[in-house]
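Entry type: protein chain
Record version: 2
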Amino acid sequence: MKKILLLCSALLFTGGILRAQSLDEVLNNYYKALGGKEKLASLKSVYMEGVSVRPDGNEVTSKVWKEGGKQMRREVNSGMFSFTMILNDKEGWRSNMQNGGKLEPMAADMVASQQNELDIAGPLVDYTAKGHKLELQGQEDVSGKNCYKIKVTYASGKDATYYIAPDTWYMVRMKAKGMMRRGGPGGGGGAAPTEQEFIVDYSDFRKTDDGFIFPYQVTTAGMGGTTNFEKIEVNKPADAKLFKPE
């Protein structure tokens, strides 16, 4: 009898974890895991330093500055090349390595495809105010975990899918399609852009000194492997010159 009671309790407990949840329930658990809505609303800017190793063994360092919803700068360096991209809500610039690394205007389609990069808190936070639409599409396996699958239709009309792990309530994967232009840095010349699916996995979640939670490891399938972030600083003002194409 004791064994039967224990088995029933285990089944009830398991059922409580795996039961179908509504979109609001999943989102509320997600917000709570990240410190709550008020905490997320206080996230205004972020600076990140990361390191990755390319398949050829070369080490690549990256630095990213983001001013929430307004502008960002990304610098990527290795022993063989350096690359810079600057983006705001209207225009962008990126290095043309065929022109000595000079910053040149990005094509309009590339600027549009990168806009979600400006959102530090992510599209699941204040999504209604941002003009996004969300749909819970059941569950799907991600690395052995049956994760909640949320489709986001952005205000722009484009969409992506986000996966929330039920044990931590962290976002562990993102799938999206974007335009990739090869052979034409900065959007000038080269091959025409083509649509490509991106799969990004997030792991090694840690809390900063300010109490914000970030994934310190980000893996993009087919796009340079895994980046390990060595420094993440929050709400520290950046030099305004960083966001100008000078």
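Comment: The chain has a mean pLDDT of 86.
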